[in-house]
Every structure is written in C-alpha cells, then in structure tokens.
Design brief:
CATH class of the domain at 80-230: Alpha Beta
Radius of gyration: 36 Å
Strand content: 5-15%
CATH architecture of the domain at 80-230: 2-Layer Sandwich
Order of helices and strands: HHHEHEEHEEH
Distance between the termini: 131 Å
Amino acid sequence: MSKDKSEGGEKHKGGPPKEKGAGKDKPAKDKAPGKEKADKGAAKAPGAGVRPKAPTTEPRLVGKYKKEILAELGKKFGRTNPMSLPRLTKISVNMGVGAAIQDKNRLQEAAGDLGKITGQKPQITKSRIAVSGFRLRENMEIGCRVTLRKQRMYEFLDRLISVALPRIRDFRGVNPKSFDGHGNYSFGLSEQLVFPEIDADRVTFSQGMDITICTSTDKDDEARELLRLFGMPFREA
C-alpha cells in the first residue's frame, strides 16, 4: 500500500502539474504605437485639468479714482493717508409706482426696466401703513429698489454721468445743494428713457426714479468735491 501511495497516490487536482512560473506572465493588452508616450506627455502638461479663470475688467471710474482723484483729494484737503479721503460706498435707485395699486402690470414693467438699467434684480417694496384716501392697504406692493455696490456701482455711475444725464432735454446740470448734511447726495429723474438700455418702442408709460449716492464722509463739501472729480455735472449756483 505504501508503494502504491508513493507511486501514484499523489494526484494533481485540475489536470497535469503546471511548470514553475507558469501563469504568472499575462499577455499585455495591445496599445497603439505612441499612445503611451502621448499619455505621459498629457500628464506632464502644465495646467492640465485646471479651469481657466474668467477675465475681469476694472470699471473705468475705479482706475480714475486710484490714479487721479485720490491725488486731487489729497492736495485739496491736505491729507496723505488715502483711507481718510472720501470714497463711494453705495448707490440706491428707487422707483415708486403708485399706479400699481390699480394695475399690477405697471410694477412688473417698472421692475424690469430697473433691472435693465442697473444690471441687478430689483427688490419689490411694500407699503407700511394703510391710507384710505389713496386706496392703499398695508403690505401692498407699490415700488421697487436696487442697492449697488463695488463694480456695479461704478459702472452705473459712469453710464449715469456720461450717457443718461446728457440725454435729458434742456439739461443744465444737477443741483449742487441736494445733500443731506451727512455726505449723501440725492436727486431724481423724471423718466427711464434717458438710459440707452431701455427701448422706447416697447415702453408703455414713463416712470421716474430717485437716486441716492452715499459716500464714506459725513461732510457735504468733501462729498461734493468727490462727485465733481468723478464728473458729476453740477450747475453753477
């Protein structure tokens, strides 16, 4: 029995015995010539997989403020620290649409025009109190407004000074005394058609607006000088 075991007792499962090292080497997948080099070159390419940044353009008035206006204000007020000089903080544009009490489409059209003018979605304003004489109830939508800051603020001011105000009929300048005593300047426009973004053929009614320019100073003289250097056309007193 021991002889039989020694001669044929050990059986290989799964067929004949494999040679040493057999089955380790697997056939490599065929690759197109030059593909491997191309893959290595693509992996080492600088900036591969990085999303390019969108180009940013600085508004014209921002460059003018940094290069010209700051120096002029420093000489005018005798200051060397640029942080102590006046600057713009925000611009608020408000439309009061009283006709929206009877026709809500008026408010939607006014909000659409305000969005085109400022490049920002307007906020709908509601009444705070009820006035029976005007058929006004509390929390009724009667207007829209936009608050502009940073780049949009400078872009709007540039279009306002360079394009919109000169298009006003018989324009002789804005009132230089319309300051509130805290360095903020407010004035009104009678219609939205002075802005080139509004198509006159599609406008069904004229809508005025109030514009408030806020500055970092609380002195009217400094704010007036800042706006004058920006190009605000003040009329002569």
